[in-house]
TrEMBL record:
Source organism, top-level taxon: Eukaryota
The name this protein goes by in its record: (+)-abscisic acid 8'-hydroxylase
Source organism phylogeny: Eukaryota, Viridiplantae, Streptophyta, Embryophyta, Tracheophyta
Compartments (UniProt record): Membrane
Keyword line: Heme, Iron, Membrane, Metal-binding, Monooxygenase, Oxidoreductase, Transmembrane, Transmembrane helix
BP-aspect Gene Ontology terms: sterol metabolic process
Protein family per UniProt: Belongs to the cytochrome P450 family.
Cofactors (names): heme
Membrane topology per record: Single-pass membrane protein
Amino acids binding heme: 423
Functional pathway: Plant hormone degradation; abscisic acid degradation
Catalytic reactions on record: 2-cis-(+)-abscisate + reduced [NADPH--hemoprotein reductase] + O2 = (+)-8'-hydroxyabscisate + oxidized [NADPH--hemoprotein reductase] + H2O + H(+)
Length: 480
């Protein structure tokens, strides 16, 4: 009522009397207006359409969990509350997490140009800023073509016997020993990565490269503290030395007019690449191939030892291959006739989902399923969450390779990503697992020593303590 009376001005004296009231009313009015404006501003369409979720900082423990513990807890809590797209805040970075196949497809495939890959600078500098992962557009597609050429089935067919030789040399050293599965698999995956990077003719520099590379990797997986004696500082030094070693190898290959084998040969043949572009990508590919494959191999052994019937079925399939073999060793075609073993690998990749998610960054304000993702925000497609969604994979915690007898629906199964940045090494990774499983299941058995459960991060999730196992010769009498 008081507010309304202001609109019809009262006589002067009365007005004077009302000065305090007038003042009071106008203060009230302007505060109400301000509150209204604030509300209006907060309901600005752009703001209103941010995805749901809390931007409060997840408490430190929770953020650490995302990186170090089972990230499932972090995601499933929020997914239950907010749905398949929600915003959150990781160590001060606003980000949007997505866990529907359609949204993953938009970010990774159909609108990939709006979402660039993003890595912390400390990591980018260790790998080398010109490595394929960090780029978009013309430079990325030129590199991708070269890398893909080098890892297409046609190109890796020729490596079957070299990979087999590595396996045949490694397995006997396990016999009657307790091995740390992860450590052994890292050795194996590294040797295969070196062959794919440099070809089968090994350079005298290889031992040096291995030492430096392992130092680099250790620094990559540690805190980026650039002080004397920290793993990170040592890694920076190792990276400089690797630069020089690679430059020597590149120079030698250029001089001899023979570019040689492996990815290096392909990159040298690609002409327009500079030495440091080549070096960054060689290191990048070894990096992408090493711990990933080793972690998946470790899980494969764990799941097989937990599922004895499956182990016997895989062994039977491998015996079938061996019986039909004509030559002395495995061929590419043999590896194409291992459907059950291949499904075990597929299910391992799903169940373990060692790459829980990947990072992108919106390059502009992006309209996305009715929401706005502001420029600069991170976008995380949650592979693991999708792989563990009961709608697509019933009883998701069960290890059941037979679910892959029917191909999964598009964008529900992306262990190697999808779209522009999808993994060019997927066929090689599967090939090296198949070859190892062939010989391991035919000739050996392994028993987990100590407790059999728990997860550690090194840096990908792997069974506790790297899965120590006692390896013995397989007795041909099948246990019942
Ligand atoms: C089982 C083992 C492996 C897994 C699970 C895996 C997974 C992935 C995933 C999910 C991506 C996409 C990342 C993203 O979109 O942000 C990727 C990219 C990549 N992977 Fe793999 N990978 C494996 C083995 C390998 C191997 C053996 C190589 C080497 C030949 C390799 C080389 C690469 C490269 C170069 C990229 C970057 C591609 C690009 O940015 O265009 N990976 N990998
Ligand atoms: C391994 O152990 C088995 C049984 O324990 C034994 O018969 C065999 O001689 C051992 N082999 C080696 C190479 O030590
Ligand atoms: C490697 O050498 C190139 C020069 O060719 C240089 O630009 C680059 O910064 C070097 N990288 C490292 C990590 O030292
Ligand atoms: C990648 O995306 C395309 C387009 O949506 C789809 O056809 C394909 O099946 C997807 N790949 C995977 C592995 O889901």
């Amino acid at each position: 009522m008081k507010l309304l009376s202001l609109s019809s001005p009262p006589p002067f004296s009365q007005a004077l009397l009302h000065v305090p009231l007038f003042l009071f009313s106008s203060i009230l009015l302007s505060s109400l207006l301000l509150v209204f404006l604030i509300l209006l501003w907060r309901r600005h369409p752009k703001d209103k359409r941010l995805p749901p979720g809390s931007m409060g900082w997840p408490y430190i423990g929770e953020t650490l969990k995302l990186y170090t513990e089972n990230p499932n807890y972090f995601f499933s809590n929020r997914q239950k509350r907010y749905g398949e797209i929600f915003k959150t805040n990781i160590l001060g970075c606003p980000c949007v997490m997505i866990s529907s196949p359609e949204a993953a497809k938009t970010v990774l495939v159909s609108q990939a140009h709006l979402f660039k890959p993003t890595y912390p600078p400390s990591k980018e500098n260790l790998i080398g800023p010109e490595a394929i992962f960090f780029h978009q557009g013309a430079y990325h597609s030129k590199l991708k073509k070269l890398v893909q050429t080098s890892f297409l089935p046609l190109a890796i067919k020729g490596s079957v016997s070299e990979i087999e030789q590595i396996v045949l040399k490694m397995l006997p050293t396990w016999k009657n020993n307790t091995i740390n599965t992860l450590q052994e698999m890292k050795r194996y995956a590294f040797d295969v990565a070196m062959i794919s990077a440099f070809g089968d003719k090994m350079d005298i520099e290889m031992d040096g490269i291995k030492k430096l590379y392992l130092c680099l990797e250790k620094g990559y997986n540690s805190m980026p503290l650039n002080f004397p004696l920290t793993p990170y500082r040592k890694a920076i030094k190792a990276r400089k030395l690797l630069n020089e070693t690679l430059r020597r190898i590149i120079e030698r290959r250029r001089d001899s007019k023979n570019y040689g084998g492996g990815l290096l040969g392909v990159l040298l043949g690609g002409k327009e690449l500079s030495d440091s572009q080549i070096a960054d990508n060689i290191i990048g590919v070894i990096f992408a191939a090493h711990d990933t494959t080793a972690s998946v191999l470790t899980w494969t052994l764990k799941y097989l030892s937990d599922n004895v019937n499956l182990l016997e079925a895989v062994t039977k399939e491998q015996e079938g291959i061996k019986m039909k073999m004509v030559g002395a060793g495995l061929t590419w075609d043999d590896t194409r006739r291992m459907p059950l073993t291949s499904r075990v690998i597929q299910e391992t990749l799903r169940r373990a989902s060692i790459l829980s998610f990947t990072f992108r960054e919106a390059v502009e304000d992006v309209e996305f399923e009715g929401y706005i993702i502001p420029k600069g925000w991170k976008v995380l497609p949650l592979f693991r969450t999708i792989h563990h969604c009961a709608d697509f994979f019933p009883q998701p915690d069960k290890f059941d390779p037979s679910r892959f007898e029917v191909p999964p629906r598009p964008n529900t199964y992306m262990p190697f990503g999808n779209g522009t940045h999808s993994c060019p090494g997927s066929e090689l990774a599967k090939l090296e697992i198949l070859i190892l499983l062939h010989h391991l299941t035919l000739s050996y058995r392994w028993q987990v020593t100590g407790e059999n459960d728990g997860i550690q991060y090194g840096p990908f999730p792997v069974p506790k303590r790297g899965l120590p196992v006692k390896v013995t010769k397989r007795s041909k009498t099948v246990p019942t």
